[in-house]
Design goal:
- This protein has about 100 residues and is of the alpha+beta class.
- The chain has one domain (about 1-90).
- The protein is built from three helices and five strands; from the N terminus they run αβαβαβββ.
- The protein has a five-stranded antiparallel beta sheet with strand order 1-3-4-5-2.
- The termini are far apart.
Length: about 100
């Protein structure tokens, strides 16, 4: 489900909207280990996020994130951006709804 949603977001992205940044896999394991430990349903694709990171041998991944309509679509690639390691989708928590 997360991969499907990320593909749709990539297709809808304007040119130059998708940008990557290198991130340490250990940092992502730590952050999402805590976040998913508190609320496993926090992200779509969270059920395999940590196991995919654990199976990846590299020290860094390239994180590509797209923000669209209150959602954040994250895709983690190897350093060369030639292989998808994992992907997940979560609510953009920076948005605050005002009544």
């Amino acid at each position: 489900m997360a991969a499907e949603r990320c593909c749709v977001a990539l297709r809808a992205a304007a040119g130059g909207e998708a940008r990557g940044r290198r991130v340490a896999t250990a940092h992502l394991r730590r952050i999402y280990g805590i976040r998913l430990g508190r609320k496993p349903s926090a992200v779509v694709g969270g059920e395999r996020l940590l196991s995919d990171l654990d199976a990846f041998p590299g020290a860094e991944v390239t994180l590509v994130a797209l923000e669209q309509q209150g959602w954040v679509y994250c895709m983690l690639f190897d350093a060369e951006v030639s292989q998808l390691v994992t992907c997940f989708v979560g609510k953009d928590r920076r948005l605050v709804e005002v009544a």
